[in-house]
Write a structure and sequence with these properties.
By secondary structure, the chain is an alpha+beta fold. The protein is built from 6 helices and 15 strands. The protein is elongated and about 70 Å long. The N terminus is likely disordered. The structure holds uracil (URA). Uracil binds next to helix 6.
């Protein structure tokens, strides 16, 4: 039987790298923080920015490190914010988070995207494996959207959306089967298991309807609960099963 080697240094990193990656300050600034006595390692003032440490041994200003193992958040995204980190695309959803979280590396990013004009449930994490897992069409996580339409959709649209044959312009594959429930003449609830670009808007546009407002209410079993627009709550890192820390 091959023996599995155990990495005794897993999770051990240079102090300056650890603090910079957790968004405290730049690696260069760590030296000033050490001189000012702000950082202790195993109870002793840290002197060497290059010393190897485990996150649990480090205090900054007397406090344990901020989410050393990673972050998973459920955000109620308001309209008007993009999910891109590109500044030229305008104000983004990450601007709602504390500055330290915005400075983390790997960066906190969204699991899938909502358009600027879409509100609702958005997951954010710094765990890249979780992003890949939950956005993969293989996993078929159901996402529920509520759309207000400019007109009543034509007869047969629910059957068409459910058929798995709807082909959107520019897409290689047809849309996977999607469940449409009309809540009122111009109010629709659509459940998708994939996330093509602007998919809800394009599916309705293919049927002559413009989506006037769009809101995501559920991601898998998760709902917004009483979070108001702009608020978030934390989820345990293992909420979707275990992930390895990509940092
Ligand atoms: N479909 C859209 O058209 N927009 C979104 O933001 C999400 C799904």
């Amino acid at each position: 039987m091959p023996r599995r080697s155990v990495d005794l240094h897993a999770g051990v990193r240079r102090l300056d790298q650890l603090l910079a990656n957790l968004g405290y300050c730049s690696r260069r600034e760590v030296r000033d923080w050490l001189k000012a006595g702000r950082v202790t390692v195993r109870g002793q003032p840290a002197k060497d920015a290059g010393q190897k440490v485990a996150a649990g041994e480090v205090l900054v200003d007397g406090e344990g490190l901020d989410h050393p193992d990673g972050i998973l958040l459920l955000l109620h995204k308001p309209t008007g914010l993009v999910c891109s980190h590109e500044e030229r695309e305008g104000p983004n959803a990450y601007s709602l988070l504390p500055a330290r979280w915005r400075a983390r590396n790997p960066q906190v990013t969204s699991i899938g995207r909502l358009d600027k004009d879409t509100s609702g449930l958005l997951l954010l994490t710094d765990q890249s494996q979780l992003v890949h897992r939950l956005t993969s069409p293989k996993h078929k996580v159901p996402k529920v959207y509520r759309a207000t339409l400019d007109r009543e959709p034509p007869a047969g649209v629910a059957e068409l959306f459910a058929s798995g044959t709807l082909q959107l312009d520019g897409e290689k594959a047809p849309c996977a089967p999607a469940q449409l429930r009309m809540l009122a003449a111009q109010e629709a609830e659509l459940t998708l298991t994939e996330g093509k670009y602007h998919q809800v808007r394009r599916m309705f546009a293919s049927q002559g309807c413009t989506v006037l407002t769009l809101h995501r209410s559920h991601f898998g079993d998760l709902a917004l609960g009483d979070l108001t627009a702009g608020q978030w709550r934390e989820l345990p890192l293992d909420f979707f099963g275990t992930t390895e820390n990509s940092g």
